[in-house]
Amino acid sequence: MIRPGPKYMDAAITGLGVVSSVGTGADAFWKNLVAGVDGFGAITVFDASGHRTQRAAEVKDSPGYDPLRLNKAVLSRGDIFALDAARQALSQSNLLDADGCVQDSQRTALICATSAGGILGLETFFRHKFEGTEYDAADLLTSFTLSALATNIALEFGIAGYRTTVATVCSSSGLALAAGLDVLRRGQADRVLVVGAESLCQVTHAGFNSLRSIDPELCRPFDAARKGLVLGEGAGAIVLERPDTADAQPHRTLAYLAGYGLVTDVHHFTAPEPTGGAAATAMRLALGDAGRTSTDIDYLNAHGTGTPLNDAAEAHGVVALFGPEPAHLTISSSKSMLGHLLGAASIVEAVATVLTMNNSVCPPTAHLESPAPDLGLDLAPKAHSKPVRCALSNSFAFGGSDISVAFTDSLRDDASTGIPASGVAVTGIGVVSPYGMGGEALIHGVDSGKSGLNSLETVDSRFVSLCGGLVDMGPVRAAIPPARRRHLNRPAMFLHLAVREALDHADLTPDDLRDAAMAFGTAYGCSGSVHHFYNAILTDGPRNVLPPHFILSVTNAPAALEAQQLGLSGPVWVFVADECSFDACLAWGADMIRDGQADTVLVAAAEEISPAILDIHHALGFFDGENPLRLGEGAVCMVLENEDNARERGAPIIGRILAAAQQASSGCGPQEYAQDYGSLAQAAHSTLNGVDIAEKPLAIFGPDVPVLRNSLKTTSRANPRAMLGESGTASGLCLAYGLLSSRIAPGMILNCTSSRGGLMAASLVEKIG
């Protein structure tokens, strides 16, 4: 069963930042929002003349951002929005020193969210290649990874604490806020900067048009004449702090982030369950986590996209929880003015919700002329004054990622309540690797000493001289029934097979997973599908692209498709942390079980080598020199369980997750690796603190770090990823090998990862004989 967080601690909100089509800065943003001003107009960011619709909520009056430590020429449009919003929030929180850097940077975490990241640069790069014109790769591609947003913010403001990026499309920054709350509750930081950013681009605009979900003129949520959403862009930033830390500072707490509810709607990838059951459950869980009831809520910032099905499902969920036309509840949709900001929507709407509470004024739902009578809601089309002590903000996404976030104006009384920590057991492992499908193929390949790297010619004939860890797709396709396979892209196929093997290994069935959680990681997302879709825009025109191809392009597609196939209605987290992506998921999944948030978590990662990824890395010079980067692909899934539950059901316990740690250098750019392993050694030693490893064999997987070699007595040391290729999955494949191979004695495994962007991760796992 999914339960609230362990300590029920509220997070103090001490800083806000916003860049939007209706204003930059909280004052301008709020003034226009209350006035019902919308930002809809003709698209100028790209040539939209060939698209089915040509209007969006574009940021036109932002003064831009002048970085102190970054090269503005290589920053994406989304980066600029994010940096501006982040500086606003950090300044309001009084967290910046005289040099513009965050004070106490090691105890400041950074969690970012985006759906498409620096995709405008990618589109420009591939358009130049398509047209055969000149381009500057560094200017266009430095921010090509979704994690680049976080890396650039960390570098600009000197943030050296916990760092990750969440990517669940339209709910991304809602999950980032929830993750920030959990990080504070777990004591992993004293404050968290949460930032979500998005820019308009052709892929998302053509994609939503292919789904016939865009209104050509206006967004009119909950109106009888509603036709669809209108896309928007911008960024939001919120500083969360421990309440005791915030109270000690000379600034005012604006509100409290008190809880969240996160579920997966398994009805359909893009259409919500019609009765709104998932939406109601998300809101109910948020109330429980916040220690509030439905009668406490004064205001709801609705997801309110303006699409017929989404608005109806949300309305039915609201009625199921609050009753028909509850007199105490005011509801409005910010998207009626801001448009749908996708990965940034949740946090910008959270800013709007906090400002609603601070100003005791509920903003309107613009363009609401004839409220749909079948929805059963009392929606005010005009702003009105009203004290708001408690509020909810909803965000629902592709893949059924539904989150509701609760805000309050005062601390709860039961903040000290906790759940005893649980042991974390690994009970199942499944892999797809360059050596083939399954754990046995991985063990045989690594133990034989034969490299899993081979020519990349089959991906793209231009790269015949390069090697990478490719998976033979023949057996993969043969292992998946055609009816299922036609709905999956390459990484989704890898993940599907890895999950099935892991569940078989753990002796679990889909029926055992209804309330389980999933933590999924990837460095490059569904790059092949994104490139395929954009190439179709270039060759066939944006009016002729196909909806299934767009659906498969979103980063959370593999995890969401698998969760819906399994009927997994619990939380699905999606993290992008480059080569540390699996490590981020392993740590998150283990913490969920220790905290009592879940009894079972599927920790997984999947990666593909696509022509687009090869083109990008080639243009950035990663394949040059004597030691070119060797990319890899595949998938890994580990079943984590509450150890007591696993023993009770007689599950095979393969290992125990004892500790995990991350160190982040704030001195590396998005495409740079740290030049030394000092931070990796710190992360590794952090996992060993308080753990008795005396007289137990210790195997270390990862780079050869001298300080570890000299300070630890090891029985074996290896770096299997050199035989598998670098990816967000490689770390998981290495750990899977260590836990499965008979050549690695029962004892301790220290798994270490060094990633671009200066991220370093280590995990300590006890292998059970």
TrEMBL record:
The keyword Translocase does not apply. Coiled coil: none annotated. One of its GO terms (molecular function) is 3-oxoacyl-[acyl-carrier-protein] synthase activity. Keywords: Transferase. Pfam families: ketoacyl-synt, Ketoacyl-synt_C. The keyword Transferase applies. Residues 8-409 form the Ketosynthase family 3 (KS3) domain. GO terms for biological process: fatty acid biosynthetic process. Belongs to the thiolase-like superfamily. Beta-ketoacyl-ACP synthases family. This is Ketosynthase family 3 (KS3) domain-containing protein. It comes from Oceanidesulfovibrio indonesiensis. The lineage of its organism: Bacteria, Pseudomonadati, Thermodesulfobacteriota, Desulfovibrionia, Desulfovibrionales.
